[in-house]
Design goal:
With 905 residues, the protein is mainly β. It is built from 3 helices and 70 strands. A 5-stranded antiparallel beta sheet has the order 1-6-7-4-2, with no helix packed on it.
């Protein structure tokens, strides 16, 4: 059943109440309201739940009768520690619905107290009326839950060695309580053992060097705890060694009802597992396809150094036959296919098809090969050979049987060949002046040299260390990443291979400018590269620039010193640029029915969407349209005036909600410039009704996805890591959030201006309640995740929007690195004011909240509303750990009132 959720700043009929304060009375200078009364539908509420569970709020309905003599305000105050100080209230005519929920992260135990609901004749609530305050007593019982220590595993091992750990399981029924576990990983490298008393042994098998991720789900009595696993495997001495098999192909010959002479394949197993090897055979069918079978003419026996291969022609007639031997090592080793040809009967022996590959370490010697030209029986004859491809040169085009045919790839043609594509040549061998039938074999060449597509983030700040994701393909074949990686004026203190398509670098850029990032190869061939930009830190002077129209999105382009705003009212993309001499200037480009915008993965283009389903790529320098695409469906604007921009991952995927009421999640691929559906996940059920809406960390790795706020029950919040490209359910049972702000690396998240969590959704702390004199408007978290910023308007100015404001907007600054000792409250480190209001000060839907963003160096806030862009340099004392500090208390009691009815003029 659809339901409506509103939020402060979006509608006058829904307000976020901060609890606290004391009682009042009908005493005062204003005569009492005649006959006006307030009543409640209940006088008590209770909660009983287990620690860590999400609790359904209890709704208390306040009804009014009669007519107040003047203005009517409502407010709420909570006593005791059990109730969350942030209380939703929705006003519907003569009723107000209050949603009460327990305070987050309560320790096991029992809590009780009261919530006082007040009706007042003034905003300060010095004169209560209608028989208020009315008490609602509450009880909260928090039962002991299931916990696991450590909460996550971070294991480091040298490739070639197993690793192990022990998880301590704290059962709600005591140490002897039973539990079950489920391992989720890509491959079978993560295993759990026999349960001990309150213990779960974990084994991590030897793997190739890299970083691997998994999860262990532990269940007990209907409870679930998810333990993330990060497994870092460092290279062994001499580096990783993949599976090696030689020779790369076999040519066998026999006569009918006989067997071929045995041939030997030398096998060297991977350095990370020298015991596991699967050997399989497949045979070519009449349609050209290969079908795996254990019943065929090949007999492959494992030996101490590899394998012995014999072909039996006992059931074969004269002719040529093809098969393949597959050697499958332990993951993540690369399987190797050895082509095998068998010639039965008299005639030229058909050489086996040859397979060549050009990767990072391929040398010029590996671009040549040879095959034996032989007769199954009979005297020596002369042969000649020809190739149908210009890139394959025959070094000796003729000879006698018994001699080898030598061939070589023309390296001059490699540069023009398409990377990660296969080319094929056919070599035909004839015996002139004889009746012997020609034979042919194929030589296939796959060019797969490493190439770099994107880096995330694409822009860094000088002398600020950061982790940079490098995205591309072909990385697994690079033996020495440090030697092959081309950084053009940068130095990486650490290089980690996450997969064949992703590297992770630790850098501290000292030189500004554009740095080309690529990966070289042994042949010196050109390959794809990208640029990492480094800028100097810069604090912009305070400024206010007029820019009319309701805005949905704000973006900051630090490279071009430009702020972009999606002006949905004016149907334009507004650009505000800074010049050190001229200051700020405004220009715009018309985008009919504009919906949203995002900066591309390399920062050189803007992706702009419209409600009609048109996607445009704009040149970031001049805003000219370089490409456009019409979607077959409309694009969904989940929230009219709320977006953090089109989220773009470091893999070049820009994520979009496509559809109308029920939507799908698709992505625009910046490399192919096409719109594609997200990968299918049969195990994941989604509920994108009126959603989703998303936000991405600036490095393009972690994306949060809220499915909907319009259906019951609330579907869980999802997340996606670009390295995997798959949606996952968050382990903290979070559901919806209207406003999410991520640090540059995604390790800190500010939810709805009030709660800070880490990358694993663990609670860091809560922001203290704002003073009753201010109303929250926007929130941000610093790029390094150490500061949370909350922009608030003066409460007195919100009610007097038709008059000049009496105060400036204020930014409250909090330490988001950790909570105060012995508390979940975050520490306030100070406050500062903007120089102007960015937008109107109404509280209804005609006046959307301002949108805000922060510069990559963390020194400047940019806030845009329907009237101005406000540029606010952050005082250096508040950005550092040395600023003035004030210890906050989560939910410190304070009373804020809101206008329920306006008296008749």
């Amino acid at each position: 059943m659809p339901k409506i959720r509103t939020f402060l700043g979006l509608s006058l009929l829904s307000v976020l109440l901060a609890c606290g304060g004391g009682g009042g009375s009908d005493a005062g200078g204003t005569p009492p309201s005649s006959g006006f009364r307030v009543s409640l539908d209940r006088s008590s509420v209770s909660f009983d739940f287990e620690e860590g569970q999400t609790v359904t709020p209890a709704v208390v309905i306040a009804s009014s009768s009669g007519t107040p003599s003047g203005d009517l305000y409502i407010g709420a105050v909570a006593e005791g520690e059990g109730i969350d100080p942030y209380i939703d209230a929705v006003i519907e005519g003569t009723q107000a619905r209050f949603s009460l929920r327990p305070r987050a992260s309560l320790a096991p135990g029992n809590y009780s107290g009261r919530v006082l609901l007040k009706a007042c004749e003034d905003a300060a609530c010095t004169r209560t009326i209608g028989g208020t305050p009315l008490p609602v007593s509450y009880t909260v019982k928090v039962r002991k839950g299931l916990t696991v220590t450590p909460s996550e595993l971070n294991i480091v091992a040298v490739s070639g060695n197993e690793a192990s750990a022990v998880l301590k399981v704290n059962h709600p029924d005591g140490p002897g309580g039973s539990f079950s576990d489920t391992v989720r990983s890509d491959g079978a490298w993560l295993r759990t053992g026999v349960h001990g008393i309150g213990e779960l042994p974990v084994t991590l098998k030897s793997l190739r060097s890299g970083i691997y991720f998994g999860n262990i789900e532990i269940r007990a009595s209907g409870r679930l705890v998810n333990v993330p696993v990060r497994y870092t495997v460092t290279p062994p001495p001499g580096g990783d060694r993949d599976l090696q098999v030689s020779p790369s192909s076999l040519s066998l010959a026999s006569t009918e009802n006989a067997s071929s002479a045995p041939q030997t394949l030398n096998v060297t197993l991977p350095s990370w597992d020298d015991t596991t090897l699967g050997i399989y055979t497949a045979y070519q069918q009449a349609n050209g396809e290969y079908v795996q079978s254990t019943q065929g003419w090949l007999n492959v026996q494992r030996t101490a150094t590899g394998a012995s291969v014999v072909a039996s022609a006992a059931t074969l007639s004269q002719g040529s036959y093809n098969a393949q031997i597959l050697f499958n090592p332990a993951a993540p080793g690369t399987p190797i296919v050895v082509p095998v040809s068998l010639t039965v009967g008299a005639g030229l022996v058909k050489p086996a098809d040859q397979q060549l590959s050009v990767t990072a370490e391929t040398s010029s010697n590996a671009l040549q090969g040879q095959v034996a030209i032989t007769l199954a029986a009979g005297n020596t004859v002369v042969w000649s050979a020809s190739s149908d491809a210009t890139w394959l040169k025959l070094l000796n085009a003729s000879g006698q049987t018994g001699q080898a045919l030598r061939y070589q790839v023309d390296s001059s043609e490699l540069e023009s060949m398409t990377n990660f594509a296969e080319s094929e040549a056919t070599v035909t061998v004839r015996a002139p002046q004889t009746q012997i039938s020609p034979v042919s074999f194929k030589v296939s060449l796959r060019k797969a040299i490493p190439e770099v597509h994107y880096v995330g983030p694409y822009l860094l700040v000088q002398n600020q260390g950061a982790e940079v994701y490098v995205r591309g393909r072909g990385f697994d074949k690079v033996q020495d990443l440090a030697a092959r990686l081309q950084l053009s004026g940068l130095a990486a203190s650490q290089i980690s291979r996450l997969s064949d398509t992703q590297l992770l670098l630790s850098v501290n850029p000292t030189n500004t400018g554009k740095h080309v990032i690529g990966i070289g190869n042994a042949l010196g061939l050109g390959s794809g590269s990208t640029e990492l930009r480094v800028i100097a830190a810069r604090s912009y002077p305070a400024a206010a620039l007029a820019t009319a129209g309701k805005k949905r999105t704000i973006l900051f382009d630090a490279e071009r010193q430009a702020v972009y705003a999606v002006n949905v009212e004016g149907e334009t993309l507004d650009r505000m640029r800074f010049d050190a001499q001229a200051g700020w200037s405004l220009d715009s480009v018309s985008i009919p029915a504009i919906l949203d915008a995002g900066i591309g993965p390399d920062g050189q283009q803007l992706l702009v969407s419209s409600k009609s389903g048109i996607l445009r790529l704009l040149n970031a320098a001049n805003l000219h349209t370089e490409f456009s695409l019409q979607s077959s469906e409309s694009l969904l604007g989940s929230l009219t005036y709320l977006s953090n921009g089109i989220p773009t991952g470091n893999d070049g995927r820009a994520w979009l909600a496509v559809g109308q009421s029920w939507a799908t999640l698709q992505y625009f691929d910046h490399r192919s410039r096409s719109l594609k559906p997200r990968p299918q996940q049969a195990e994941l059920s989604t509920s994108f009704y009126g959603g989703p809406w998303m936000v991405m960390a600036r490095n393009g790795e972690r994306m949060l996805v809220v499915q909907s706020a319009s259906i019951s029950s609330d579907p869980p919040m999802l997340y996606l890591d670009s390295s995997e490209g798959l949606l996952k359910t968050n382990p903290a049972a979070l559901t919806f959030s209207y406003d999410m702000q991520l640090s540059a690396d995604g390790n800190r998240v500010l939810f709805d201006f009030s709660t800070v969590r880490d990358r694993n959704f663990g609670l860091i702390g809560q922001l203290p309640s704002l003073p009753s004199t201010h109303v929250v408007q926007a929130g941000l978290i610093s790029p390094d995740g150490k500061r949370a910023y909350v922009l608030a308007y003066a409460d007195s100015d919100m009610g007097n929007f038709d008059q000049a404001p009496t105060q400036l907007p204020r930014v409250f600054v909090y330490d988001s690195s950790q909570a105060s000792s012995g508390s979940i409250a975050l520490t306030e480190v100070g406050q500062f004011d903007l120089t102007a209001y960015p937008g109107c000060r109404r509280t209804d839907g005609s006046c959307p909240r301002p949108r805000a963003t922060i510069s990559p160096d963390g020194q400047t806030l940019f806030v845009v509303g329907n009237e101005k862009l406000v540029v606010a340099p952050i005082p250096s004392a508040l950005r550092s750990s040395t600023g003035a500090r004030r210890i906050g208390v989560a939910g410190t009691p304070s009373l804020r009132t809101y206008l329920w009815r306006k008296s008749a003029p």
